[in-house]
Design a protein that fits this description.
Elements: E1 2-6, H1 16-25, E2 31-35, H2 38-41, E3 49-54, H3 56-69, E4 72-77, H4 83-87, H5 94-103, E5 105-114, E6 117-119, E7 122-126, H6 127-134, H7 137-143, H8 145-158, E8 162-168, E9 171-177, E10 179-183, E11 187-188, E12 192-193, E13 204-209, H9 214-225, E14 236-241, E15 243-248, E16 253-256, E17 259-263, E18 266-279
Parallel strand pairs: 1-2, 1-3, 3-4, 4-18
Antiparallel strand pairs: 5-6, 5-18, 7-10, 7-16, 8-9, 8-15, 10-13, 11-12, 13-14, 15-18, 16-17
GO molecular function, one term: kinase activity
Organism: Congregibacter brevis
Protein name: YegS/Rv2252/BmrU family lipid kinase
Length: 283
């Protein structure tokens, strides 16, 4: 049985009937009414599909209960950045997303946790968490993915970083950081890639960004993403493990999938292939 989950605060202005009609036009007719809370979702089982309207925060909100229920998740990207959908090649086009619901395959993806709060895509310590906290909802909805980039540049200009130690298995990195990203998925900030991250590999990928000037960081981004060079280890530190610890000299905010996730110290872990989700079929 198909069920629709609709979150009116996820970033889309369309009402729930828009989504029912969209799905009907693609030959998909979920049970009515739409589900609207985790208690209803918890009643589903492995024979059910939950079609979630929303972005990373909405999927974050439902991921653990879906994993426990055993239902299969389908994504209708109705959030602001929709990075989880981007990273799984579902994308942001609604017709293409509906095609995945019709013709896609079921994949098992990892479910990550920070201080036992679940997340599906990425968690931030540092400027990324600050950006999620400081973006006004109206601006976030209007400017979408570009609001993150604009705020990122503004924030880099105003900060000199923070002291932290990162533990990933036997590997340890310490010093000053502008941002530390702990990634389960492979896209953040509206389509910016997390190099090497795979949401199905049972590992978390850590990317630590050292304090540098805006010009130096922009050049590094071009060098890596346009020129396809390896990140400079004096600027970008990369680690990978199934368990990560971040300790800071003073308390710093943590965000997960754009939502508040408390503060440091932060412990991260991953449950391998805990969540069933519809993704595009293989070519």
């Amino acid at each position: 049985m198909d069920y629709l989950y609709y979150n009116a605060a996820a970033g889309a202005d369309d009402d729930v009937e828009f989504w029912f009609e969209l799905l009907k036009g693609h030959g998909i007719e979920p049970s009515r009414p739409a589900l609207g809370d985790r208690e209803a979702v918890a009643q589903l089982d492995e024979n059910d599909r939950l079609l979630i309207v929303g972005g990373d925060g909405t999927i974050n909100y439902l991921a653990e209960v879906c994993a426990k229920a055993g239902c299969t998740v389908g994504v209708l990207p109705g959030g602001t950045a929709n990075d989880f959908a981007r990273g799984l090649n579902i994308g942001v086009d609604l017709d293409a997303a509906c095609a995945v619901l019709q013709e896609g395959r079921v994949s098992r993806v990892d479910l990550a946790f920070v201080n036992e709060q679940p997340f599906v895509n990425v968690a931030h310590v540092g400027i990324g968490a600050g950006i999620s906290d400081s973006l006004e909802e109206g601006k976030k909805s209007f400017f979408g993915r570009f609001s993150y980039l604009a705020k990122l540049i503004e924030t880099i200009q105003a900060r000199k970083g923070f002291s932290a130690e990162i533990y990933a298995g036997e590997a340890t990195e310490s010093g000053r950081w502008l941002e530390i990203v702990v990634a389960n998925g492979n896209s953040f900030g509206g389509g910016h890639p997390v190099l090497g991250a795979d949401p199905c590999d049972g590992k978390l990928d850590v990317v630590g960004l050292r304090p540098r000037s805006v010009n130096a960081l922009l050049y590094e981004w071009v060098r890596v993403h346009v020129m396809k060079r390896d990140p400079h280890p004096d600027i970008v530190v990369q680690l990978s493990h199934d368990a990560v610890e971040i300790k800071t000299s003073s308390q710093h905010s943590v965000s997960a999938d754009g939502e508040d996730a408390g503060a440091t110290p932060a412990s991260f872990r991953v449950e391998h292939q805990a969540l069933s989700i519809l993704v595009p079929k293989l070519d």
